[in-house]
Design a protein that fits this description.
The chain contains eleven helices and 26 strands. The protein has four domains: 58 residues; 140 residues, OB fold (Dihydrolipoamide Acetyltransferase, E2P) (Beta Barrel); 108 residues, Nucleic acid-binding proteins (OB fold (Dihydrolipoamide Acetyltransferase, E2P)); 110 residues, OB fold (Dihydrolipoamide Acetyltransferase, E2P). With 468 residues, it is an alpha+beta fold.
């Protein structure tokens, strides 16, 4: 009985391989199907009821990722070794490759035939699960090969990423597995031109099996890692890159709280793909107290649910309307504390980059160009060797900012404004312009926007270091 079961399993795997080769020949295909039916009947009728049921069940659990084989000797496609540089999401990974493949030595891979739910922009159901699956699989790999679908590397619609099959194995004595197909058969992706490629038939079979087994995206079951509240789940990168689109929209995101100013906090989160921090200001006003207020403490990584609003006085967007229902802490609209003791990034930034830098962001559909400071708005940065050229001090008795200063500085011929709150020394005395006039300073602050230009906002005297 055992040998028949093994023979049947091997037959199914061989059937899938052969099927790809005979699809163009209808006579051969019909013969193959007749043989399959005959073999199935023989094996099922020669077993008792329990064993027949077992074999029938195994029909719907074929390991399609193993059924296809990586042919390193074939010249039909490009194949080359790679090492992971960066995990982006379920269907996108950056790899180190030989510079003979790409001059940069880095290939941004978009997996052929699959489209996993989003985990880096608008968060979608099973997006985090798909991203984690890819990361766990390749983190265990002892060897990784990338394969093109034909004899050359083909870029995706953005022109920045290349469409590839990803093969891996976790031990030297193992055969390579096709990760694209493995993700499909586990129900962690939907089809993306899945039939129109080198392994198209197997991809379709893998998708159909995942649907039959009701796995993950095909299950109809709620994703335990997904937020099902009324807000749009997204990343701070997605929010910052498309901020106008979310005006008036309730959103949910996570980030590190870096600074507190009056009744607002600044938050930031790192995006590995762009190697940048993205931020937002969150206004909590008088809505919070007790546990809710503690969640907004500097150093916390917190989950925020609130509405994007345009702050007319500052000419920028912020998130407001946050709440915490102490009697119902599991309310999906509550803010939540995730971790504590986190530090601001204080990304080292040159005056040139701050003033003139541009950043290109690749989305699924297009490339967008942004001012560096615009993308870094509300994040923490540091800048060194700023020569203070002049200082303006707010003196109006009616202003809540009386005593605050704007330091106009210069570095390498480039002008940068540093705006302070009202600064005090260790004895509580207000620090005046004389302390910084003509000095060279290092600063740590928050990227701010005022009157049509970007500046660095400093919230504590300890964040200014006088060099001379």
């Amino acid at each position: 009985m055992q040998s028949k079961r093994l023979m049947f399993q091997n037959f199914i795997q061989n059937y899938n391989i052969i099927k790809d080769r005979v699809m163009k020949n209808k006579t051969k295909l019909i013969s193959l199907l007749l043989i399959l039916c005959l073999m199935t009947a023989i094996l099922l009728t020669s077993c008792d009821g329990e064993d027949a049921s077992t074999i029938s069940s195994e029909l719907s659990n074929i390991d399609y990722a193993q059924s296809v084989k990586l042919d390193l000797n074939s010249k039909e496609t490009l194949k080359f070794e790679a090492k992971v540089k960066l995990f982006v999401d379920g269907d996108t990974t950056h790899f180190y490759v030989d510079k003979r493949i790409l001059e940069s030595g880095v290939l941004k891979a978009r997996y052929i035939a699959i489209n996993t739910p989003e985990s880096t922009g608008k968060i979608e159901e099973y997006g985090k699960a798909a991203s984690n699956y890819t990361k766990e699989a390749l983190s265990k790999a002892t060897s990784i090969y990338l394969e093109s679908d034909d004899g050359k590397l083909n870029a995706d619609s953005t022109g920045d990423r290349y469409l590839v099959w990803v093969w891996y194995k976790t031990a030297e004595n193992e055969e390579y597995r096709n990760l694209n197909i493995e993700i499909l058969q586990n129900g962690l992706a939907i089809a993306s031109s899945s039939a129109n490629n080198k392994y198209g038939t197997v991809c379709v079979d893998a998708i159909n099996q995942a649907k039959a087994n009701k796995l993950n995206v095909h299950s109809g079951v709620k994703d335990p890692d997904f937020y099902y509240g009324e807000a749009v789940e997204l990343t701070l990168k997605e929010l910052r890159c498309n901020i106008e689109d979310y005006n008036g929209v309730k959103v949910a995101f996570t980030g590190i709280i870096t600074k507190n100013e009056s009744s607002s906090v600044y938050m930031e989160a790192y995006d590995a793909e762009t190697d940048m921090y993205y931020g937002i200001s969150v206004y909590y006003g008088y809505n919070l107290s007790g546990d809710g207020l503690e969640i907004m403490s500097v150093g916390n990584e917190s989950r925020i649910v609130g509405t994007v609003t345009y702050y007319e006085a500052g000419g920028t967007y912020q998130v407001s309307g946050v709440s915490y229902r102490m009697m119902n802490p599991k309310d999906p609209n509550n803010i939540q504390k995730i971790s504590s003791d986190n530090k601001p990034a204080y990304v080292p930034t040159t005056a040139e980059k701050f003033t003139n830098g541009k950043v290109e962001i690749t989305t699924d559909d297009e490339k967008k160009s942004f001012d560096y400071a615009g993308l870094a708005l509300n994040t923490s940065i540091s800048m060194e060797n700023l020569k203070v050229k002049s200082i303006y001090t707010t003196t109006s008795e009616e202003s809540s900012s009386k005593g605050a200063m704007t330091l106009t500085c210069e570095c390498d011929g480039i002008e940068v404004d540093v705006r302070t709150t009202v600064l005090t020394d260790d004895d509580g005395k207000i620090i005046t312009a004389e302390a910084y006039e003509g000095k060279t300073i290092n600063v740590k602050g928050i990227v701010d926007y005022f009157s049509g230009s970007y500046q660095i906002k400093v919230l504590s005297a300890k964040d200014i270091t006088i060099l001379n």
